[in-house]
Amino acid sequence: MTPAGKNLMNIIILGFGFMFIFTAFQTCGNIEQTVIKNFNNTEFHGSGYTSMAIIYGVFSASNLMAPSVVAVIGPQLSMFVSGLLYSGYIAVFIHPLTWSFYTASVVVGIAAAVLWTAQGNLLAINSTDSTIGRNSGIFWALLQFSLLFGNLYIYLAWHGKTTISDKDRQTVFISLTVIGLVGTFLFFLIQRPDTEATTTEGGSDTCDPLLPADPPEGSLTVTPAEGRCSQAWNAFKKAVQLSITKEMMLLGTSIAYTGLELTFYSGVYGTCIGAMTRFGDDAKGLIGLSGICIGLGEILGGGLFGMLNKCYSCGRNSVVLLGLLTHYLAFFLIFLNIANDAPIASQDGTHLEAYITPSVTVALLCSFLLGLGDSCFNTQLLSIVGYVFRENSAPAFAIFKFIQSISAAVAFFYSNYLLLHWQLLIMALLGFLGTITFFVAELVVAAARRDSDYSSI
């Protein structure tokens, strides 16, 4: 296999590994608040929103040390261990206890920081300037297939159910745990990229300072303890330095917006649909169908703006603007179609009237629009961060996830209390500001690298 072909195969394996892990985890996040409301145990007092707030809060703090972990043990082993911890969090729901539920939330927050930092590292070292856009799109599209399979299973398993029994819950979460483990073991198939790939594809050097030098596949780098400590400290310092660069500070608002809407589509909106008694007895099953529609939007966006490379002429700005307008349409329709107290309704659901007669078709259309808009933002952010910070990809993606996760943690926290229209307003305002700052960041990058072969997706 040619070096370029090996790099592409690594990206595909990376995408499939994440697809399996997040088939399990995103399905878990989409249904956990509904499952908890139906859990028949008076000794359990957990909240799905609170758990996700803990995960993303710990995630954000852990991003400061994640580059050090990746520097010491390498991206491949980092992802493997993190995948095991993700599966452990999902397994907690087989027999949930309050203490184990929240402890697992803390642990998976740490694992998430390491997993995503390693992912950004591997994406960058297997890409060149000319392929970073394509590879970002391929990875994103494969990742978002995770929204299809798990949610399709939820829809088929829960179709027509008004409550979720203990047996239903255990069957689902045992299956999701196994799926997560399958994805985790796929990471061992990733091969070390050849340095010759850079000349083959005509891009710049794909070397990354955080990739260990010729380690055995999937094993620890054999270096003196002093060398490992130095690597870890240098990675931490680099992450702090990158966080105050002009490009990263400009992109910060856009990244924060993706954290808010990640919270909304991955947890809050499914809960809203499940709480709508106006949708009839099948409202619980519609949670899975909503997740499928979100996944279809994500996959379409990843394909159009990444794999097919159709937007070179119009640039990243046009794709981000499309994402904002798509989200604005979704927010407006959700505002009209979903009752205002749906995010915080009790187990019995909401009986408040929406502004229009609630429509399942409109609800699922909004799910699709949420996914499409999210892919517009994320493919462009992955591409520009991987492009600008190629030589320091792991610290850069750690900062990316730090900003995104702390924003998501805040959003999951206020989702316990705020009515729907306030949540939509916050996202609309931050989305507008994020789009403006992305435009400015794109101008700064273009001006700084005007003499390069810069191209955007």
Keywords:
single chain, 457 residues, 73% helix, disordered C terminus
Explain how this protein is built.
- The protein has helices at 3-37, 48-62, 66-73, 75-91, 98-125, 132-144, 146-158, 166-186, 197-201, 225-243, 246-275, 283-307, 315-337, 360-388, 393-414, 420-448.
- It is an all-alpha fold.
- The protein is globular and about 55 Å long.
Give the N-terminus to C-terminus distance in angstroms: 27 Å
Give the fraction of residues assigned to helices. Answer: over 70%
State mean pLDDT (0 to 100 scale).
79
Shape: globular
Beta-strand content estimate: under 5%
Sketch the major β-sheet: none
Radius of gyration: 21 Å
Summing up helix and strand content along with how strands pair, one would put the structural category as mainly alpha
Which stretches of 5+ consecutive residues score pLDDT under 50? 196-223, 308-313, 453-457
Order of helices and strands: HHHHHHHHHHHHHHHH
- How many E strands? 0
Number of discrete helical segments? 16
Topology:
Elements: H1 3-37, H2 48-62, H3 66-73, H4 75-91, H5 98-125, H6 132-144, H7 146-158, H8 166-186, H9 197-201, H10 225-243, H11 246-275, H12 283-307, H13 315-337, H14 360-388, H15 393-414, H16 420-448
